[in-house]
Specification:
globular; two-stranded antiparallel ribbon
């Protein structure tokens, strides 16, 4: 537990208090029954939650020890990624103004604007820039594929991806209890594009947090779920 930094402990505490991270029994889009559910949209109910989340995103980026994670622009995919990129953009300048004070921020429109300045990108230009994508989760990789396509079309280069949560579970199959190892959605994105993908929180972090507060029942169900659906990457 000592390995978790204070900002991550603060985020876990805020998540559970505000029910952004809830425990029980939840049916996922894949059909799996999960003992937990993460809803990043609930962060916008209170300003202090947004501040905690933006700090966590900024610290994840600033503390990254991967030298390849160098970027010029944060990109928030419409729609959920837009506020995440905006608040992280601001917090990065506060965390380390010398390193991040000149970083830009951009997002895409769902529909191309045909008047005025036109185009599908709002904010900093992506042309010739190294672009870091900010989003809540990677489920099947579809949204990330679309973001990569947009950035490439605008003449940018994807430098990496940062998401709020890595569930660390293998991708679903027709027979989800087949017992065969499979990579996670995040693992597939890393393999496909050869770029770093960071997560602010992981399933391991959540389990460590439950151990710290002595929540034995939820912790056991989380560990059972991890053992059953653990990804191979």
């Amino acid at each position: 537990m000592a390995s978790l930094p204070p900002w991550k402990l603060d985020l876990l505490a805020a998540c559970t208090k505000a029910k952004c991270l809830a425990f029980g029994s939840f049916t996922l889009k894949s059909g799996r029954q999960s003992p937990y559910f993460f809803n990043a949209g609930l962060f916008y109910n209170h300003a202090y939650l947004v501040r905690t989340l933006s700090t966590a995103f900024a610290r994840t980026i600033a503390d990254c020890d991967q030298p390849v994670l160098q970027f010029d622009v944060l990109f928030g995919p419409a729609y959920k990624g837009i506020p995440l990129a905006a608040v992280t953009f601001d917090k990065l300048a506060e965390v380390d103004g010398d390193r991040f004070g000149q970083v830009g921020c951009a997002f895409n429109r769902k529909e191309v604007k045909s008047y005025g300045d036109g185009g599908s990108i709002v904010g900093a230009s992506l042309k010739g820039k190294r672009v870091l994508i900010i989003d809540d989760v990677i489920t099947a990789g579809t949204a990330i594929n679309e973001s990569v396509e947009i950035i490439n079309k605008e003449g940018g280069q994807v430098a990496g991806i940062v998401v709020a949560l890595d569930r660390m579970e293998k991708m679903p199959s027709a027979n989800d209890d087949d017992g065969y190892p499979r990579p996670s959605a995040i693992g597939e994105v890393r393999r496909k594009y050869g770029i770093p993908v960071l997560a602010v929180l992981t399933l391991n972090d959540i389990i460590d947090g439950l151990k710290a507060i002595g929540n034995a029942e939820d912790m056991q169900r989380m560990e059972d779920y991890r053992s059953r659906f653990r990804a191979s990457d």
